[in-house]
Request: fold
Amino acid sequence: MKDNIVILSYNLKQLSYLNMNIFDNNKIFKLIAEVSDENNFETYVIGGYVRDIFLERKSKDIDILTIGNGIDLAKKVADKLGLKKVAVFKNFGTAQLKYKDLEIEFVGARKESYRKNSRKPMVENGTLEDDQNRRDFTINALAIGLNKENAGQLVDPFKGEEDIKSKIIRTPSDPLVTFSDDPLRMLRAIRFASQLKFKIEGSTFKGICEMKERISIISQERITDELNKILLSEKPSTGFKLLDKAGLLELIFPQLTLLKGVETKEGIWHKDNFIHTLKVVDNIAKTTDNLWLRWAALLHDIAKPATKKFIKNQGWTFHGHEFFGAKMIPAIFKSLKLPLNEKMKYVQKMVLLHLRPIVLAEEIVTDSAIRRLLFDAGNEIDDLMKLCDADITSKNPEKVKKYLTNFQIVRQKLKEVEEKDAIRNWQPPISGDIILQTFNIKPGKEVGIIKNAIREAILDGLINNNYEEAFNFMLNKGSELGLQPKR
Ligand code: ATP
Reply:
């Protein structure tokens, strides 16, 4: 079996421009090959993992195809590895093993045929060729043999290797049929273009444009999955522009397309907020992999169309778009089936606060304004500043420089005030319990009034953020409300 691995490496090394050791995962392939030969399974590595070898992308998902029963092969491999757990999906005829940080999926080769109203095909057992025919793109249809007699040999019926070299996404068969059968493939094509920086071949893209309405049979979860992947790509604007160009964006994310367009009145125009938003998303993608900060960038101006006004002698305004935008987030998250939890609240907070740091760059700004921002943003202050930097999209380099410098000034002020007052993770120095005990009162509205007053006094700088000053302030406030401390 040792020979096998040598052949595998050797043959793959011959694949022209490959210079990376694809057998980073050598051991596991060797073992699968061994088990296959011992038990007469004809076995291949197939799909995304093979594509990623050529792209020199590290992948942790391995798809193993066998001509026969994938579940049986998975169980035999698991035995050999001493793994107790095999996740079997009988309905799909697949089984999955987790080995170290790898997820290995085993499947029997199959042939698929589709009905009009579902992306779930009718499935029957098939050959390697049948299985490659059912794959979405030429670059995803590559297979490498694992058995002794064909170890390391590439089976590439649709010239996928060439397409990888030329960075092209193309369906192996008629694009109209491919996309009509499973319309999710339209989003996958665009997502791969964005992720891999590939071009979608002409007739393939035309097929997407023609079949776009078919997206209606795809579940929201699958659509949002692809949107997330586009957002996480290096330059997400590529994906969103393609979605827009194909006419899909309007169908799956209409709020974004409303940002499009420029209007001019009395010789005054406003920028195209769609282009601006995509630039902000590209900018933020350079500084963070946090999916939710990227969502915040995508949605930061989402209420601009709803708040747009032309005011004589003043021009275009989008007054309050940050408040309306924050209010729109729950409905957008719900319709996209994004999580309605603290991630959503985080995005809301970013949208709501995204204009606040701008005014803080002015010289006359008070410590109180800085404290209030620290209080409102809390631990998210650094992310908010990242969003502000990303929001600068002027084409004038002088302006960009000036704004970036302004935000550096804001950062400095935030740092100084935070060092002095420790507001960022503010916990009230006087708890509700202390108020109740001090005045010997029952829970009621007075406690809330006193707590708020203490917080405001600290944020306004009337008292410092410590127990003693807050306690004295509480006594005074209590007396204003007719409360006396108990003796
Ligand atoms: P990623 O892991 O980034 O999503 P991938 O290509 O590995 O990329 P998977 O969803 O893991 O994607 O799919 C593995 C393989 O299964 C693909 O490479 C492709 O050959 C095939 N495949 C996946 N989805 C489809 C589909 N909708 N239609 C046809 N083939 C598909």
About this structure: The two ends are 87 Å apart (CA to CA). Residues 1-23 have pLDDT under 50 and may be disordered. The CA atoms of residues 235 and 306 lie 27 Å apart. The longest helix spans residues 397-421.
